Request: fold
Amino acid sequence: MLTQLPHLSLSQIPLPLQLCKLKAGFPSPALDYVEDRLTLNDVVKLDPRYCYLCQIDGDSMVDYGIQPGDVAVISRNEPARPGKIVVISIDGQNTLKLLSEDDQGPVLLAGNSAYKPIRPGDGEEWVFHGVLIACTRLF
Amino acid sequence: MHPPVLKPEWRLSANASRVFGLVDCNKFYASCESHPLWRPDLIGKPVVVLSNNDGCVIAMSMEAKRMGYKMGDPHFKLRDRLRDEGVTVFSSNYTLYDDLSNRVMMTLADMVPELEVYSIDEMFADLTGIPELQGFGEHLRNRVWGWVGIRVGVGISATKTLAKLANWAAKNWKGLGSVAVVLDDQRHELLLKRAPVDEVWGIGRRYAEKLKARGIETAWHLACCDEQAMGREYSVVLQRTILELRGIPCSDLELKAPPKKQIISSRAFGTRQQGWKPIEQSIASYVARAAEKLRAQGSVCRRLDVGLIVRKATVDSFQDAHSTASAKLVTHTDDTLVLQGAAVSLAKRIFDDSAVYAKSSVALSDICQPEELTGDMFYIPNVQSSRAKVLDQINAKFGKGALRSATTIGDMQWSMQRGHLSPYYTTRLADLPKLR
Reply:
């Protein structure tokens, strides 16, 4: 007989939650308590319909723990509200900034004192392309 | 011809029993290339997409269309003009288009009762029983744009043919906001009268010319014809089209694609090829691809056709010389190695050492499902190869082409020219779009 080779994709690789050794003789008393294994998807919720992955390229958000090389999970199903880190294109280039609001209106804040806050120009309407919902890094 | 009259019993209100929607992506390939998450700089800019081997224009953005570029224009003639006018050029990136197409379909699949994937950028949906269809159509459109970042148009009517025509109206008539619902007699009549017969689903250019020659110029004229007489004179398909134009559904959603009866794998070489090695290599890898598709639909095949093409090109035209060979195998099979062996020996038979080849092709036919076979003297009960099954399992686990026949290994000089290929933004970690 052929061994069935499972088809694995990135988001489905299960991480063992509990280790259970098989014993001959008695069935494991834990069998009734086994749950489904966790995957990274249970943490990040990478919905293939509205989530896109992007790579961070720059140091403008380091104070929020977002480092160059990190893989950012961008959702297009999340409204851009003050307090959210959003994707917006400025001069034809996409950038990640914290959307905030003060008495002068909406403002985009960088997480790095070397970058100035950005305000909409006269009559300019901001169009957001997505909201950051997770940021992943391998150590 | 008498002035066309739609009899009362041919009106939509007398016939409509179902509701179908057609959703299609606007300028799909160009929209994938200028997606807001990777090329925000291209939003609202002219973009063209080239065919395999960067041969000719196969898709473009609205802006490029307005500048007068045409589908099918050969790239080499346009190169200077594209550069001077600041048009961004892309080789076709089907990996990217397929991923975005899947996202659109997954988004829609959760919103409608049933969905038929009609092409890479078109889907039919069963919308029977859904209230407030105008609002629903706009909801579909907004959600796909919001989630995926691709704009779609929606046509809604009583049959698939009418839904497709309504979609044409949604795209081409001002003021409809990309969603057209045609479910009352007044709009039905307006749609039929304003739609040229060429725009009717299934009416090709040749058919349209024949119909126009006898005064049938619009969908309205066609809908007013005696369907039985037209059926006798032309085809049953045309008869059904006429009924569908009157709101009588003759075709339902095809939820599962019927297995293909012929699988062709062919492509022009990136550069002209001489000598046996590249020919053998290309034939073997086309067989591998075709056999994979064959197994994916659970079929087996018996007939094999191989073609080699020499192209003589002048500045503005070309002439192809084909040589072909075919074989019928002893039994049906789905085994890559068996098919490759047969195809390579066929190619050897027609191969000419002195010829300069532009293209090769492989076709599998006499395709059926294993359970449809009836045995003869040489019948082997299990025609599905377990070797091929292992091959597919290994490639599913370790990636496409991880295990393949040695014939296909080596420098693929003949492979496609894609000088303007964009990154695989959504399917390859190394190609992810950058965020500052």
Summary: DSSP finds one helix and six strands in chain A. The helical segments of chain A are 41-44. The first strand of chain A starts at residue 51 and ends at 56.
